[in-house]
From TrEMBL:
UniProt family annotation: Belongs to the auxin efflux carrier (TC 2.A.69) family.
The name this protein goes by in its record: Uncharacterized protein
Family matches, as Gene3D superfamilies: 1.20.1530.20
Keywords: Cell membrane, Membrane, Transmembrane, Transmembrane helix, Transport
Length: 309
């Protein structure tokens, strides 16, 4: 895909985010409505987008790429965990909660709200297909290792959530349908398709509404927040990009590997902090700064992908 087209698509997504920000600022969407839209997105629309992505003709090459994407995702998270643990260590970051937030931030990106819309915009159903592979492995890591960073232990409940997450269940069902060459009945297919098409716009609008919670005066002054953002938005995505390119990954598979890995910090950092009854101020700051910074970092990274491809 031409670099200009790629940048244009990213710019459109940020325009949608700006719309959400304006609607929230002017009182057209309040926080209760934003929460309700988030539930709709997570439990209905995103699963439909995943299921829709599997409604394509089976080919062995696509199935092989799906497996490769799963392997890449597994490697990405092992690498991110190791690097984040080494960099954000006890000596440099004595505050345990802050240290764990930074480790989480370096490891987990916003694959659902931002990754899937970008994959859809830049690679269509193929992007969503590969994104489903990424999301399946990602879900297992975030509900085990990610949750453990805040709770201090891996519980049976977190492992159960990892496997019972609706997006993972739908990914498994969709994969079975894909491998069996089973297509959804006409009305059901259209039902899923129409809901899936809401994913991109609604995701960006919701992110925009959350940006109104940011104190921009404080946002850019915390050095520790910047360290987490640089690791998540710049260092780790570029390290992955050049590694994948060096081992021969090209084209859409390269693009679809980098998009979710280059997304800003996952909002689960705030959710897990709340669940563990810990301060949410720092994770909110890091996540918000990462999202704002992605206005610059994501177009740059995707432009490099375009030049390499």
């Amino acid at each position: 895909m031409a670099i200009l087209t790629m940048i244009t698509q990213v710019f459109v997504l940020f325009l949608l985010m700006g719309l959400g920000f304006i609607l929230s600022k002017t009182g057209k969407i309040d926080q209760k409505t934003s929460y309700q839209m988030t539930s709709l997105l997570c439990y209905i629309i995103l699963p439909c987008a995943i299921l829709y992505s599997f409604q394509m003709k089976f080919t062995s090459s696509m199935m092989i790429n799906f497996i490769i994407m799963c392997a890449i995702t597994f490697g990405v998270h092992i690498f991110n965990i190791l690097v984040s643990t080494l960099v954000f260590n006890k000596k440099m970051f004595p505050d345990e909660h802050q240290r764990n937030v930074l480790r989480f931030s370096g490891t987990y990106s916003n694959t659902g709200f931002m990754g899937f819309p970008l994959l859809d915009a830049l690679a269509g159903t193929t992007g969503l297909f590969y994104g489903s592979a990424y999301n399946t492995v990602y879900g297992f890591f975030i509900w085990t290792h990610g949750a453990m960073l805040f709770s201090g232990k891996i519980s049976k409940r977190s492992i159960l959530k990892a496997f019972l997450n609706p997006n993972i269940i739908v990914s498994i069902v969709g994969l079975i349908l894909y491998c069996s060459s089973i297509t959804l009945p006409g009305p059901i297919y259209l039902f899923v398709k129409y809901l899936a098409q809401l994913n991109t716009a609604l995701s960006m609008i919701i992110i925009g509404t959350t940006m109104t919670q940011i104190s921009f005066n404080r946002l850019f002054t915390n050095v520790h927040s910047w360290l987490g953002v640089i690791m998540r938005n710049v260092i780790l995505p570029f390290a992955l990009l050049f590694f994948l390119y060096a081992i021969g990954i090209r084209g859409e598979l390269l693009l679809c590997s980098i998009i979710p890995a280059a997304c800003p910090i996952a909002g689960f950092s705030v959710l897990f902090s709340k669940m563990a009854h810990k301060d949410v101020g720092f994770p909110c700051e890091v996540m918000s700064l990462s999202t704002v910074s992605s206005l610059v970092t994501m177009p740059v990274i995707l432009s490099v992908v375009g030049m390499l491809s």
